[in-house]
């Protein structure tokens, strides 16, 4: 029977053999018998063209999204991909995968989120990656469309001077004091600090480490612990057997920033986030003469390009090069021709 109904289902189903002898059973998605028969005939014709004429199967965006999530399930950011695709999928329901253009992608992203250009670019980059996979790896489409990104504004680096940092610490609730001190001492990201365990720390050697699966760049980070960091850790000894930083004796999970922002307000510090403590740490090191390569390694950044944004804070290392002009100017002012001109005058 080409079409049939299953028990306890109002939809019609198809049961056909493709030209290669493979049996295909699937729902038609309709309770109307005539529409179901049309679906059957269309599907049978598509299967014949794919097999006999070597045509590509007509794929949907939904199929591509599901395959992407399955093949990329190991990604650390896969949860973010799921959220984005859940918002984007409704905008591609009436269009086939091979029909999607760059303009479709931009329109869908603009409808899905009203966030900043940088956030929209993350959506667009995901769409571009999926469409390229559909072309290069899966051969589902002949050509992936060009998906252009929005121009992003370069944001300034927000950091505190030491006196501001001390003032902020003075207004923090007690449980945040060692956390903020540790952040300023090590430059670790908030998630790595809140999830830090005692088995990641060697107090005798004054080192700690973040495992690759816990690091944003996906590679291990070794953290040399200065005295400020050691003091912050010692203040936490005995509070919990596994995690380092706690609130009322329990691990901090999904911590609120209310206490931190309230302290910022009381200290008169505006436009400052917890992540800016990392910027502050990096800025202090750069201004103390630490090189970009060393800062990259200390902070666990993926590339040196990501730390160049701090370079403008430390022009001192360029002074020795700029002094070459002094030598040139000094030489030009004492050439024989100039000396003769002075004597004639």
UniProtKB/TrEMBL annotation:
An individual GO BP term: DNA integration
Q: Fetch the InterPro entries from UniProt.
A: CB (IPR044068), DNA_brk_join_enz (IPR011010), Integrase-like_cat_sf (IPR013762), Integrase_catalytic (IPR002104), Integrase_recombinase_N (IPR010998), Tyrosine_recombinase_XerCD (IPR050090)
User: Which SUPFAM superfamilies does this entry report, sorted A to Z?
Assistant: DNA breaking-rejoining enzymes (SSF56349)
- CDD domains reported for this sequence: INT_Rci_Hp1_C
Q: Which GO terms describe its molecular function?
A: DNA binding
Provide the Core-binding (CB) domain boundaries: 59-135
Segments forming domain Tyr recombinase: 155-323
DNA-binding among keywords = yes
The highest taxon in the source lineage is Bacteria
Q: Which UniProt keywords apply?
A: DNA integration, DNA recombination, DNA-binding
Query: Key word DNA-binding present in the record?
Result: yes
* Record PANTHER family: PHAGE INTEGRASE-RELATED, PROPHAGE INTEGRASE INTD-RELATED
Record family assignment: Belongs to the 'phage' integrase family.
Protein known as? Site-specific integrase
Organism encoding this protein:
Chitinimonas arctica
């Amino acid at each position: 029977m080409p079409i049939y109904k299953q028990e306890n289902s109002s939809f019609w189903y198809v049961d056909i053999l493709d030209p290669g002898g493979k049996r295909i059973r699937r729902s038609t998605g309709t309770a109307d018998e005539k529409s179901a028969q049309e679906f059957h005939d269309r599907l049978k014709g598509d299967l014949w063209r794919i097999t006999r004429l070597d045509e590509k199967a007509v794929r949907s965006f939904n199929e591509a999204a599901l395959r992407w999530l399955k093949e990329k399930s190991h990604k650390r950011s896969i949860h973010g991909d799921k959220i984005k695709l859940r918002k984007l999928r409704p905008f591609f329901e009436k269009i086939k995968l091979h029909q999607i253009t760059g303009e479709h992608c931009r329109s869908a992203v603009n409808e899905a989120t009203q966030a900043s250009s940088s956030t929209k670019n993350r959506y667009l980059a995901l769409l571009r990656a999926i469409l390229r996979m559909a072309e290069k790896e899966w051969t589902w489409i002949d050509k992936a469309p060009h998906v252009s990104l929005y121009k992003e504004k370069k944001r300034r680096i927000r950091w505190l001077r030491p006196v501001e940092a001390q003032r902020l610490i003075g207004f923090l609730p007690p449980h945040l004091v060692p956390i903020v001190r540790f952040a300023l001492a090590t430059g670790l990201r908030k998630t790595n600090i809140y999830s830090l365990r005692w088995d990641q720390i060697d107090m005798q050697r004054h080192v700690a480490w973040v495992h690759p699966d816990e690091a944003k760049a996906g590679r291990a980070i070794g953290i040399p612990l200065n005295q400020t960091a050691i003091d912050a850790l010692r203040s936490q000894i005995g509070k919990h057997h596994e995690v380092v930083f706690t609130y009322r004796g329990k691990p901090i999970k999904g911590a609120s920033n209310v206490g931190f922002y309230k302290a910022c307000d009381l200290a008169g510090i505006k436009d400052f986030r917890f992540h800016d403590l990392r910027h502050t740490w990096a800025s202090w090191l750069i201004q103390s003469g630490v090189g970009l390569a060393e800062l990259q390694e200390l902070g666990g950044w993926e590339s040196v390009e990501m730390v160049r944004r701090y370079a403008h804070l430390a022009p001192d290392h360029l002074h020795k090069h700029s002094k070459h002009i002094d030598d040139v100017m000094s030489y030009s002012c004492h050439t024989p021709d100039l000396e003769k001109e002075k004597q004639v005058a």
